[in-house]
Fold:
Amino acid sequence: MDWINNRKILIVGLGLMGGSYAKALKRLGYSVSAIDARKSSVEYALDNGIIDEGSDHADKKIISEADTIIFAVYPRIICDWIRENQAMFKPGIIITDVTGIKGNIVYDIQDILREDVEFIASHPMAGRELSGVENSDDRIFRDANFIVVPTEKNSKEAVKWCSNLGQILGCRKVSVLSPAEHDRMIAYVSQLTHCIAVSLMTCHDDPKIADYTGDSFRDLTRIARINENMWTELFFMNKEALLSEMDAFIGELSSIRKYIESEDEEALKEKMRTSTARRESFDK
Amino acid sequence: MDWINNRKILIVGLGLMGGSYAKALKRLGYSVSAIDARKSSVEYALDNGIIDEGSDHADKKIISEADTIIFAVYPRIICDWIRENQAMFKPGIIITDVTGIKGNIVYDIQDILREDVEFIASHPMAGRELSGVENSDDRIFRDANFIVVPTEKNSKEAVKWCSNLGQILGCRKVSVLSPAEHDRMIAYVSQLTHCIAVSLMTCHDDPKIADYTGDSFRDLTRIARINENMWTELFFMNKEALLSEMDAFIGELSSIRKYIESEDEEALKEKMRTSTARRESFDK
Structure:
């Protein structure tokens, strides 16, 4: 199951992420096929040389020839798709995904999967505020962190294979976390930030706001342009961890509110010194 | 008091903003002087051709020759400085500032100011996460909004003059707001965003966080590198408006929290559609 022998890669789901994977892997010399129910996405990818082969349905030839399958679809779809189509899988293949939550899906997938096939979860922390294969871009991996998320069922070889996938995509840093660790972390650094951006944008209705904003407001609301179907699904599937992070953040912001109300200069400055020191360590 | 006759401009306070004003105005052909108690800042600016003349104290020659004075110091300092030095001002000059809060200072300044001199407040919504004249850069005005903040005491000519200042600095858009409107707006788009960024950075202590973050967390915490002395002063001087904005935001985020907890899909998606539509209008 190493990369030398994995010549044919099938991507299920040809949106922004699927298209970006296809571009990166084609550039590296792999034969890339794709399946997506949206005929126009498949045609676009074929016409623009993003994939070598494609279909708008679970095509037997494409599925049975794949040495690797990468799922770049909404999380709830993966299990059903595997259940319906795994009889066609080539023996001994390896499967991964790109999904932003893990605990709620990886165990289910591994439970229903054929014994001779291995599913190893992964999460490229990359994206854009746009969607669709037309906006795919393999440069999104350049500054991205890539997280491999094995369970106890995964082999060391699969962890190594998947880490290598993150590296060849061009990701900045590859880490390994358990599903629970991943979901707690993602609730904090990704899901909470999206909740904050949306709230900041919706807590006031001032149509002239763009005339008065500086960079800070623009930065904090960039991700307020949000795919409501995908993110609602991700939030609900990671509800417990996300609610706990929201509570921690609301508690912290309420402390800062209290320091401002009581003009507790020293407590407020101490928070600012802590945030400055932590944020500086990012830019090193 | 038009720009043709205002040949000599004095900048009081040679930090990041003062230095950036000096660079922009020198480039336009004005004669620029500066006063700052930090001798090293004055020397740096003289050595690097950022100013034509400078002093580390309230030099009589420099002050009395100025046709315009721009205050780029902490807000609490301005009143005292004017009280101590206005006897030296040339008759009929015009004064402005760069301060991020207005209601708490403009009326005081106008109350103590000599009858023949006019103070018109303004606020360039530009900045960097760095400080000091060494980091000054007149390109910070390019995408900035510039707010002119007159009171009933200001003349139409001064509003026009100050709007023109924003234009020649190269700002993207110049608006006029009352002090109360300005302070409410700034509490929302600038002060609240800084409180959020600090809270997001301090609500968890995970030294490995940089290995797992994506662009969204980096965007939302860029301004968590914060000058604790300046921002504490700004927060306290605009306390009422800021607390009200913090309450509105915490209330909104708590609503979103409730929608996630109860899995109210439609209410959550509606918020996301609103935030997406509002944020899109920024990028037009």
